[in-house]
Amino acid sequence: MKFTKSIKNILVAGALLISGASCTSDFEEINTNPNIPSNQPSAAQYFTFAQLATSGVGHETPRLNSLSTGVWSMHFTTSFGTDNQTWVTGTGPMWVEEYFNNSYIKVLGNLLAAQMQLESESAGYAMMEVWRVYHAHRMADLYGHIPYSEAGKALTDGILKPKYDAQSEVYSDMINVLSAAIAKLSGGGNTFGAQDLIYGGDHAMWAKFANSLKLRLANRVGNTSAIQEALNAPLITSLDDQALIPYSGQGDVWNMGSNGDVFSFSWLLSHPSQGILNVMTGRDMDETNDDPRLSVFFDNSIADSDAKTPWYTPTISHGEVPAATNIFRVNQANLGGADSPDLLVTAAEVAFLKAEQSLSEADFIAGVNLSLSHYGLGDDVEANYPVFAAKLKADFAANAKAAILTQKWVAIIGNGPESFAEVRRNRDLFYGTILQPNVDYVKTIYDNFSFDRLDFPNSEKASNAEGVEQAKTLPDNFWWN
């Protein structure tokens, strides 16, 4: 793909060569950066590629989501046998390496190349800053301390081995960057049009996205002033507002037209975990109070038969190689299909973030309704599913925070990095209250995670050993501690 070829050229090490003889007749020749091809893509094209690269190409998506973070957050279990235990502990070098490199080269690299063509005060530049923060927060959530302030500066400043910044400093700066971007986007207008795959270039929608992302980050680190600022600003509140990457499903799993998770689900490598099945069935055999999303997310049909496996039947254990035909599967008509969108920030998540702050039953039910509506199940849980609604309200009355976090966890299925963050952020509630040891999960594997973050990839250790060693000297004051 020509974008890939161009970005490889752009990321050639070296600083911008700015000649002092800028007033000569040879201005254009002397002041041309030899590391940038003359026929490079436009800023809009770079932005399109950076958006598509968010979910990776081929293996990158399932390795980040359905086969790793989606497992660690107990949405899925995988059937690869004993090798799978490497993924559970996050130590498989191949698995941690792909997303790290993808984020810095394919996403950040393209964003920086695009921003070099734009004025820093422009709305288009601000949109790219929001996108940069989205990726930086994912990286900081997965790896802890990360290259941030000097990341991507090989081209502009000749920094070949960027320093690592403390996660707390990264989060503080990201919230400030979002605030600055929101100010530039709140006036309305349009930049990039259809080449912006998320909002068609609409500034107001990008401001909502930025505010909602700010609420997510501020809530994670307990920044009360930033939380209040976000709550007082326009947020993602409807399905039309949601930030997502659309896919056409055209081509095969290895190109950018398809959601890469189709690989692990189509090949029956990932299945619903016992934890999420138990939560959605109420841990009983009474199907009248089951979560209506159960058959939307998962498939319990038996191969070559009209029969179905009861939802309360135990699913495969983690790492078990299935031999039966009645194993539960992911329903790819709604989740992890080739044309399933990559959900970045949803209206349901924002409603639950608001509910966390207000501890309001109305905000809680609003989050459930938005999740149901997203999957075509109506927008009124009390009217359409009264038995399930009664159970939700009873759960809320018993423990409001646990009920909110449980339904938020269910609603964000498919967004593994965010689900993994939720489990770590609320570890005490998830282990023992929301999920019961040796009932919803195998205690020896999942209880008291042996890891909270991914190890830095071998390629980074080889190319930036100084930075990796410097990261080890930074305080372990991660937001999940």
Automatic annotation (TrEMBL):
In terms of Pfam families, this protein maps to:
SusD-like_2 (PF12771)
Query: Keyword set for this entry?
Result: Lipoprotein, Signal
* Signal peptide location: 1-24
- Which named protein is this? SusD/RagB family nutrient-binding outer membrane lipoprotein
